[in-house]
Amino acid sequence: MCDFDYGSDDFDINIDDPGEASSRNADAIESMNIPPDGIEVSDDENNTGHDSQTEANAYDSEIDEDDADGLVLPQRKQKEMAPVWTVATKTKKGAKCNICGKIYAMPQGSTSNIMAHVKLKHERIPSVKSMIVDCKNKKKIELAKKKESESKKMRNQRTQPTITNFAKNRGIIDPLKEKKLDQALLKMTVGMNLSFSIVENHYFRNLLFTAEPNYITPSRRRHTLNFDKEALVVYESLKKEVVKDVTEAGHKTINITSDHGSSSDHLRTKKNALTVARCTNDFVIKKDVVKLIKCVGSQTGLVIRKDVKNSLVERIGYEKDWIINWVTDNESKQINARDPNKHHEVEFPINYVRGCVDHTIELATEESIS
Question: pTM, whole model, 2 decimals?
Answer without folding.
Answer: 0.46
